[in-house]
Amino acid sequence: MTLEPIAIAAPPSAPLRVVGSTPGEPDFEVQLGVFSGPLAVLLHLIESRQLDVLSVPLAELADAYVAHLATNPVDPGQLAEFVAVAAQLILLKSRSLLPGEVGPGLPAADAEPDEEELRRRLLEYRAVRDVARALGERDLLAPMQRREPRESDLPAAAVAALPPSLLAEAMRALAAIPEPEPPPPEIVARDITIAMQIVVLRAALAGGGRVVLQQLLATCRSRTEATVTLLATLELVRRRQVRVRQRELFGPIVLESMA
Amino acid sequence: MSTADDLGAFYEALLFISERPMTSAELAELADMPLARAEAALANLAGELAEDGRGLRLQRLGDAWQLATAPEVGERLAAYAAREEARLTSAALEALAVVAYRQPCTRGEVDRLRGVDSDYVLRSLLHRRLIAEVGRRDTPGRPILFGTTFTFLERFGLTSLDDLPPIDEVELPTLPAAAEPEPVDAG
User: Fold this and answer.
1) What is the DSSP code string of A85-144?
2) What distance in Å separates residue B181's CA from the closest CA in chain A?
3) What is the DSSP-derived secondary structure letter of residue B78?
């Protein structure tokens, strides 16, 4: 008794499904219309024929499995596993065709460890697949949300009760700090003209008095003022309104009004 | 108000402001209660929230607890907390099912049960935080042990792993007892 290879109905998933979330994430996944593994294929072959996994001779599924493998795309990365199961099935079939003839070095065919091992794996896989389907029906069906951490969820600072007197002390400490001086309203270059200093010199010499130039210069607040005062003196000398005398080198320079 | 109710209210408030799951030990210490008292109060609170049909549920994973919204309101909450999530593929669901029911389990166990290499699928589940490394098995190579997370419970609307849909036990009455290649801890 052999089973005709039958056309496999469309696999449980859509022919081409692109599953992915945001770009750049590694869980991007392209699922072709393939079963998730060789056991899934084998189980489908059995169930589509309404056979009992516990009793069906797996050797008889070899043709259908190989036919399926030949006509359906298999993820190249998993091809080895699909082929391994195919090899197991073909081995089982060859043993069933040649009962009693065991090659040298091969285990006795009636031991049949492979078939029962494969059947056990099929049963285990069926339990996993069924429970995966049950889980899949719940997937995102009624999700629960947890509270996500917020911006305000910073580690709480140690908060001990502060004595109110600290505030008063802080105020006193503030009062002890001198008020900063008010900044100058504006910085303006001080214009000192020769005419201004002539007025100053005439005022100093008014009434026929005498003025020592060095003393006058000592009252100047800047080098510019001193320079301009000297120039004003020279101007008055040029106009012959003032006479300048110095009795010795580096001695006092005395101004006298000539008016 | 009895002390037990008071403790339940304290834990409800505490877990409301906590932005991460808290362990039974932490909760017991914060209430200055013996561990058994704390756990009893937490279990009581979980039962009350579920029985009264409240908007929140107390989820438990291992010895950790967290408050989460009730699965009944999940769909209506989606308008506010929209999650642009793709449904899991059948391969991902299979791997997740193995981890969920057999945890803690290794990649080798997932591979063996599914009959295919599951490295990629498991990494995808790790990335989605549906599973996490929970330790290493003390066997040669010290393989990584995987378990499911709170994110897993939330996604499937489960209050705890006890709420997982019951699995049909694999009955092998007619088969010779097959030797387990590696021991598997019952979930």
Assistant:
1) HHHHHHHHHHHHHSTT---TTSPPGGG-HHHHHHHHHHHHHHHHHHHHHHHHHHTTTS--
2) 11
3) T
Q: How far apart are CA A249 and CA B3, in angstroms?
A: 109
Tell me the C-alpha distance between A216 and A231, whole Å. 13
Q: Is B103 on the interface with A (CB under 8 A)?
A: no
Nearest CA in chain B to A27: B124
Residue ranges of B 56-75 with Cβ closer than 8 A to chain A: 57, 59, 66-72, 74-75
Residues in chain B within 8 Å Cβ distance of A13 = 89-90
Q: A77 and B123: CB-CB below 8 Å?
A: no
Q: Return phi, psi of residue B41, to 5°.
A: -65, -40
In total, the C-beta contacts within 8 angstroms joining chain A to chain B are 163
How crowded is residue A79: how many other Cβ atoms within 10 Å of its Cβ?
Answer: 12
pTM above 0.80, yes or no: no
Q: Which residues of chain A are within 8 Å of residue B72 when distances are taken between CB atoms?
A: 142
Cα(A57)–Cα(A116) distance, integer angstroms: 10
CB within 8 Å: B156 and A19: no
CB contact under 8 Å between A141 and B85, yes or no, is no
- CB distance B89–A146 less than 8 Å? no
| Region class of A254: left (phi > 0), else alpha (psi between -120 and 50), else beta | beta
Q: What is the ipTM of this complex?
A: 0.74
Which residues in chain B have Cβ-Cβ distances shorter than 8 Å to A119? 175
The label of the residue with tokens 């105020």 reads: A171
Give tens-digit pLDDT for A106-135. Answer: 555 455 567 888 898 899 899 899 999 989
Nearest to A127 among B90, B124, B167 (CB): B167
* Alpha-carbon gap, residue A146 to B18, rounded angstroms: 10
CA gap A39, A46 in Å, rounded: 11
Q: Are A36 and B74 within 8 A, CB to CB? A: no
Q: Are A104 and A57 in contact (CB under 8 A)?
A: no
pLDDT tens, residue order, chain B (187 aa): 446 678 999 999 999 988 889 999 999 999 999 999 999 999 999 999 999 999 999 999 999 999 999 998 888 887 777 666 788 888 999 999 999 999 999 999 999 999 999 999 999 999 999 999 999 999 999 999 999 999 999 999 999 999 888 876 554 333 333 444 444 444 4
